[in-house]
Design brief:
Blueprint: H1 23-34, E1 41-42, H2 47-57, E2 65-67, H3 68-72, H4 76-85, E3 88-90, H5 94-100
Parallel strand pairs: 1-3, 2-3
């Protein structure tokens, strides 16, 4: 389907980008947790990215991630139940964030 665009190509390189959590964010999470506050993360990132960042920050226990698409399928009661169990929410739109908070 891209035959007219690509052909005789040679891979010249590959670049990886890493954007680790800032130290002040890590400290804020630790401070909240030491005060007994259960920290949750709501992000627009892909579920795998969200889970990896949450693990770096010590949020959640590496368990399930709920996506915005999954959230839309839940009833109000199911959503309340999931919010109590899940700490990482991914692919969340601004509307999802309002619904969760």
């Amino acid at each position: 389907r891209f035959d007219h665009i690509e052909g005789n190509l040679t891979l010249l390189g590959l670049v990886g980008i890493m954007d680790p959590p800032r130290s002040e964010a890590l400290e804020a999470v630790r401070l909240c947790q030491s005060a007994g506050i259960r920290v949750k993360m709501i992000t627009g990132d892909h579920a795998a990215t969200a889970q990896a960042i949450a693990a770096q920050m010590g949020i959640g226990s590496g368990g399930r991630v709920l996506t915005g698409h999954q959230l839309e399928k839940l009833s109000e009661a199911e959503l309340r139940d999931q919010v109590m169990q899940i700490d990482v929410f991914a692919r969340s739109s601004p509307e999802h964030k309002l619904q969760l908070v």
